[in-house]
Design a protein that fits this description.
It is a single chain. With 343 residues, this protein is an alpha+beta fold. Mean pLDDT is 80; it is low at 1-25. The protein has a 4-stranded mixed beta sheet with strand order 4-3-5-6. Strands 7, 9, 12 and 13 form a 4-stranded antiparallel beta sheet that branches. It is built from 12 helices and 13 strands. The chain is elongated. It has 2 domains: 3-183, no CATH class; 196-342, no CATH class. Helix 4 (70-80) packs across helix 6 (147-160) and helix 5 (133-142) packs across helix 6. A hairpin with a 5-residue loop joins strand 1 (3-7) and strand 2.
Length: 343
């Protein structure tokens, strides 16, 4: 891969990348300006309100566990005092953010919305919340720091430097598509839940809802025991009257496992595929990959009743789609068409 250096002030190398990356003028300009010293900016006048508003939105996105882009990654570098070297294998792109230091850069890979270690490996020793894949991969290489702490440090850095960051963005506003800078390399899934109850809300909003584009009805609750369910797919008891089904022993169990499943890299990549134009993504996640030792049991159901004794869950399957009419809504929850255990 041919590298091209981009010198900063006084010849300092701030970022580098290959020829394809060099052609992305917006990304290059923003990274260079975002890495230079504050003294090089004109700070005498207040930044444009539109630029400052964009920075404040980026801070809110961090606080709400929304996907992150370059504006947050620059602040992340400054918060931890390390460079970050980004590899994008699918596009044969490599570049480094931040100023040179004695310490080696942190290596990350970007895969259509999901951040990993090199060779597309997800960290195994660090547990994190939703949309923390970037911070999880960084924490795994720093040692002694959690994804939550690194996110907090990044938020504090952005709040402290809000004025300066807005001035940096202001310098790009003469470009026709300056806002594209904020959208480059968004990471993470479109599930932002932080608990089983959040997963339950996402599942409930999908139950009997319509998916994009066919308008088919969601039926995830058809795989959870709920004797009070009234509709034909509102419980596994009712759904199994049309044939053999597997189901969780309660909706609470389904919510718990659903939260674990939607946080995985498999589900995150599936959601990013949806946001890149896909309409249907099925993911199969083993019990080991769910990352919990206390998974609930599940059971087979026939003719409205349990068939046999509860068993351990070997795998779960989730079919993910967009909500009808919201395929271009970045803030919309994922549509869980179905979600069931495999025994």
């Amino acid at each position: 891969m041919k590298n091209t250096n981009f010198p900063g002030k006084r010849g300092q190398i701030i970022i580098f990348g290959n020829d394809e990356y060099e052609r992305n003028r917006l990304m290059r300009k923003y990274l260079i300006r975002g890495s230079r010293k504050t003294s090089r900016l004109n700070l005498r006048n207040a930044p444009n309100p539109q630029a400052r508003g964009a920075v404040r939105k980026a801070i809110r996105d961090l606080e709400r566990h929304q996907p992150v882009g370059l504006i947050q990654i620059l602040s992340l570098c400054k918060a931890i005092g390390r460079r970050i070297r980004v590899h994008h294998p699918e596009k044969n792109v490599e570049f480094t953010i931040g100023k040179r230091s004695k310490e080696s850069p942190i290596d990350l890979e970007y895969h259509d919305g999901h951040w990993t270690l090199k060779n597309e490996e997800d960290p195994e020793t660090v547990r994190a919340a939703a949309n923390d894949c970037l911070f999880t991969a960084v924490a795994a290489q720093l040692g002694g720091s959690s994804p939550a702490r690194i996110r907090h440090q990044t938020i504090q850095e952005m709040k402290f430097s809000e004025f300066r960051i807005a001035k940096e963005l202001e310098e790009l506003m003469f470009l026709e598509k300056w806002k594209d800078v904020l959208e480059i390399m968004l990471g993470g899934a479109r599930y932002v839940g932080r608990s089983a109850s959040d997963a339950g809300r996402v599942i409930d909003n999908s139950q009997n809802g319509s998916c994009h584009p066919q308008g088919m009805s969601g039926h995830p609750r058809g795989h959870a025991s709920y004797p009070n369910g009234s509709g034909s797919t509102d419980s596994v008891e009712n759904y199994s009257r049309s044939g053999w089904k597997t189901g969780f022993l309660s909706r609470g169990d389904q919510n718990f496992v659903g939260h674990l499943a939607l946080r995985t890299g498999y589900a995150q990549r599936a959601m990013d595929s949806l946001n890149s134009g896909g309409t249907n993504e099925a993911v199969h996640i083993s019990s080991r990959e769910l990352g919990a030792d206390d998974l609930p049991l599940a059971c087979e159901f026939r003719n409205g009743e349990r068939s046999g004794s509860p068993q351990r869950i070997n795998q779960v399957t989730a079919v993910l789609r967009h909500h009808y009419g919201r395929s271009r809504d970045r803030d919309a929850d994922v549509f869980v068409h179905t979600f069931y255990p495999r025994l």
